[in-house]
Each structure stands twice: as C-alpha cells, then as structure tokens.
Design goal:
With 90 residues, the protein is mainly alpha-helical. Helix content is 68%, strand content 0%. Helix 1 packs across helix 2.
Length: 90
Amino acid sequence: MTTAAARLDLRLEPRDKDRITKAAALRGLPVSSFVRDAVLREADAAIAADTVVTLSAAESRRFLAALDTPFQPNARLKAAMDAAASVAQR
C-alpha cells in the first residue's frame, strides 16, 4: 500500500461538497478517492487536448505530401543562411 505524499486543499460551497459527497457515495468511493480520480481524469483530458493533434483525411494527405516534398528555402531564408555563415566564419 502506498501513502500519498502531497496534499491538495480547496474550498467549496457547501452545496458543491454535498453534490460531490452524494456522487462519491453513489460510486461506493470515499470522497477523497472520488475527487482524486475525477481530477486526474480531467487533467489527463486537458493534457491530451493540448498535446494531441488530430487531422482530417485531407489535412493528413497535405501533411504527408509536404513531408515527401524536398525542402526549398526561399530567397529571404537563403540570404539569412548566407549571413549566418559569414558571421560564423569570422
């Protein structure tokens, strides 16, 4: 059995605490376990929404086509690379 090493305290309106207590009882869980599980589920969803990119079929085809196309720097990028190379050679 592991012991929690960190605490998280929060203030709730009494009616919100009552709702949480009722929901935990309906699931047969202690309030702390119910809240921990719900918060971790929401945290995982928020992290996934921020880190996962979903493309449509058309966007996926465009992306893969771009990866297959050799890179061609434009004139401004070529000039910037030339300038950086001359600074590096000094």
